[in-house]
Amino acid sequence: MPVGYVGLGIMGAPMVRNLLRVGVPVHVWARRLEQAQRLVGDGAVPEESLASLVRTVRVLFLNVSDTPDVEGLMLDEGGIVANARSGLIVVDHSTIDPMRARHIAEKAREAGVIFIDAPVSGGERGAIEGTLTLMLGGPEADIDRIGPLLERVGRTLTRVGDSGAGQIAKACNQLIVGETLVAIGEAFALAEAAGVDPARVREALLGGLANSKVLQMHGQRLLDDDFVPGFMAHLHAKDMGIVANTAASLGLDLSGAERVRAALARALEHGHAYDDSTILARYCIPER
Questions:
Q1: How far, in Å, CA of 149 to CA of 90, rounded?
Q2: Boundaries of each 6-phosphogluconate dehydrogenase NADP-binding domain copy (predicted)?
Q3: pLDDT digits over 153-208, tens only?
């Protein structure tokens, strides 16, 4: 039985190719036909409509930009829930509002559709190499059923809990990465102001408790002025909005999250929306 895929951008397209590479038949649909056609040479089968795609497959992957996109695909008239056969499993790799993910899952469940939130971390490189981290929320038995498919696109798969739990984990991920980038930006600024080479500071820190993947990868990006996007700044800003809204709905005041949002806002104001989100470290101090 073929699987379906909607969302064929910087993350979705290489994930589709990884499925095709191991012999999984993949049917695709995109509002922009050229996105689907680019995958035909890899073996993907384009569908003429979302409805025809939904009726063809038993597992459907989504990988789109934001909460309204997922809600529209799932719940709009003529969308996935309206056209699905009972038992369809929808795996959403998008990063969306956790509370809305729970709402979507409930509406899907009423129609006999299983909705699994499965946001990813690892960026474009992880998507290409099939080494993504997947944070999963949904029924354990259904996640286990599609485990062999998930293993084709990710290296680390963790069921965090019920519906929405994967999105909560992704929000935590974006918060930690963002605050770590702010800390690195401040550390490099401190070193420069004191007349010390930030590259040498980073080298020293890599051998101690401050070492992290963010310092390893994005610290070097900062030193190299390398902001070719793996994960774009405007998407990180969107994700930090999700963090802020979720925290507010739960009565939490996350001051660190607001500093990340402010740095990203300054980066976007200076024209860096489509640069890698590492750029936020350049704007963690307002006057920089």
A1: 12
A2: 3-161
A3: 999 999 999 999 999 999 999 999 999 999 999 999 999 999 999 999 999 999 99
- Compute the distance between CA of residue 26 and CA of residue 19 in angstroms, rounded to an integer: 7
* Joined tokens for residue 277: 């989100």
33: confidence class by pLDDT, cuts 50, 70, 90: confident
pLDDT at 288: 53
Q: Which helix (H) or strand (E) holds 262?
A: helix 255-269
What is the pLDDT, as a whole number, of residue 230? 86
Q: Which two structure tokens, joined as six digits, stand for 145?
A: 């059923």
DSSP strands (E only) in 43-124 = 45-46, 59-62, 89-92, 114-117, 120-121
Instruction: Name the token pair of 216.
Output: 């390893």
| Closest CA relative to residue 26, chosen from 155, 15, 49 | 15
Active site residue 107: no
Q: Which domains does the chain have, with CATH numbers?
A: 3-162 (3.40.50.720), 169-283 (1.10.1040.10)
Give the single-character DSSP code of 276: B
pLDDT per residue as tens digits for the range 127-149 = 999 999 999 999 999 999 999 99
Q: Which pLDDT belongs to residue 106?
A: 98
Map residue 117 onto helix, strand or coil.
strand
**Which pLDDT value is given to residue 286?**
86
Sort strands 59-62 and 89-92 into parallel, antiparallel or unpaired.
Answer: parallel
Choice among 107, 170, 213, 238 that is catalytic: 170
What pTM, to 2 d.p., does this model score?
Answer: 0.93
| Local structure of residue 280 (DSSP, 8 states) | G
| DSSP-derived secondary structure letter, 84 | P
Contact 213, 207 (CB under 8 A): no
Q: How far is CA 122 from CA 30, 67, 85, 235, in A?
A: 24, 20, 33, 14
Residue-level length of the chain: 288
